[in-house]
Amino acid sequence: TGRYKQATFSPKFGLVYQPLKNKISLFANYQNGFTNQTGTDYAGKTFKPQHANQLEGGVKLDLLNGKLSSTLSYYNIEVNDILRTDMQHPMYSVQDGTQLSKGFEAEVITNPLKGLNIMAGFSYNDSKYTKADADVQGRRPATAMSPYTANWWLSYHVLNGKVKGLGFGFGGNYASDNKIENSVYYGVVTLSAYTVLNAGIFYEQPKFKLGLKVDNL
After folding, report:
1. What confidence score (pLDDT) does residue 3 get?
2. Of 1, 41, 79, 151, which has the most beta carbons under 10 Å away?
3. How far apart are CA 97 and CA 78, in angstroms?
4. pTM for this one?
5. Which pairs from 131-136 meet CB under 8 Å and 24+ separation?
6. What are phi and psi of 75, to 5 degrees?
7. pLDDT tens column, 65-120
8. Which burial class, exposed, middle or buried, applies to 41 when counting CB atoms under 10 A from its CB (0-12, 13-18, 19+)?
């Protein structure tokens, strides 16, 4: 009953420095995000928003006259004020849980030859509850998805000759094992790693384009 209100401060800040103008950029940023929480603890105190603080840094490259572009970054995300069970009053929650996620991401786009385009990406995420219910303490959250993922796509476009406009593409996605259930009480349920391969062929002219793509070969 009565009025319900939550207010919070969520700052963001970013910085970019180019040691080689338009070729190499170093970047760093800080972001704060929040999720509103409902309810009260045993003492009747209203919960405050849950906060996540992210620090990220990396480098962006644009080299070889545009033939190579890449982004490499590292991030660290700490989530605070997570609700967890009040052990002294199990029907209530306390708001002192924490979770830590850190990882690395890389993306490369290159055109080594005329008509040839290569795109590839990779990411690694290490996530765990650092202060939580004993049931999940120190474990990877079931919502964290696969720790390793990758994607790639290679395409070639014929630029000259009788079959000018003909193109081919091939690529796929990879995801490592994913723990969709990870607790003491329920145990561990793991989805196996998988790789999905895709391919395509197309014919492009100034006024039309025909294409055929097959997913999950």
Report:
1. 67
2. 79
3. 11
4. 0.86
5. 131/82, 131/84, 131/96, 131/97, 131/98, 132/82, 132/84, 132/97, 132/98, 132/99, 133/84, 133/85, 133/97, 134/184, 135/183, 135/184, 135/185, 136/182, 136/183, 136/184
6. -135, 155
7. 889 999 999 999 999 999 999 989 999 999 999 999 999 999 999 999 999 999 99
8. middle
